[in-house]
Amino acid sequence: MSDVVVDAAGAAMGGASRFLVELDRYLEGSARSDVLVLGAGRRLEPSWLVRREVEARGSTRRIALNNVSFVALGGHRSVLLRNALHFPFPWERHLLPPGSARKVAIEAHVVRIAALRADLLIAPSSSMADRVRRWLPSTTDRTVVWPHPVSPRGGDAVREPGLVVCPVLFAPYKKLGPPLRLLSKAAGLLRQRGTEVRIEVTATEQELVAEGLSDAGFAALGRLNVAEVEHALARATAVFYPTTVESFGYPLAEARVNGQPVLAPGNRHNREVAGAALVPFATDAAEEMDLVRALEHALHAEVKANPVERPGCYFDRLLGAR
Fold first, then answer.
1. CA 171 to mean position of chain CA atoms
2. pTM of whole model > 0.85?
3. Across the chain, which distance is largest between two alpha carbons, in Å?
4. pLDDT digit string (tens) for 286-307?
């Protein structure tokens, strides 16, 4: 049995998949033979939660990257909590459609019960830590904030003037229709002033139609893998990230690390993760001109690259330096 066992099941999309890319790069570069990664590419199901406990038996350090902590005694147990829906604030409970609310509620109950067994609860942002402490006050002294690791993009990609990319994984609870509609209007007003603006969205045509955005003038890139998203963002002059229910938000941190303006609501969470790369805008539809001003600024802003968390330092700490 390896000294360190990492459960990566269920991390197939979005930020979870992005995190695994960083982990894979770290393990390839460090040649650590003491780390065993379980479950990659596997769905997170009850049968897997039982099986992983058996496979991790005897290890000195067990780390769950998928919100559900190991529970059996023996060894140090760490859990990465990065699903904000499992720890909602009161005003967010109405965001889920009725059809999925019950499923998420059941998941959340399992996540919270398992988290009570963890020796260390890791949140990727202060706002996510606040969520965890609100629901599980007894874990306050075991809950830490470790921003996700972010490597700068390699290569010599040239940013295309006027290109704005929205790298959001569409989901009903994110309510992307209103902010994207505002973005479309803001882009139209800037074009009337002679400013070139093109918008690409990591969504399918069907998803744009479902959000009432079929006539918004967006280029639908479809569902992309991590490498494809990275390529799309490397070409962009600015990033648009309008979501408000996030535990971290890799596009915010990537904009910061790569010196790229990111348009996002001006809340505490986004300021923490994006830093000086943030170009804030008001989310109220009545403040339409605020987004016009922010978009115009983002298309011409110069942002200095600023590290978030270097992968080597992060994973040495998470896995335990050899």
1. 13
2. yes
3. 66
4. 567 899 999 999 999 999 999 8
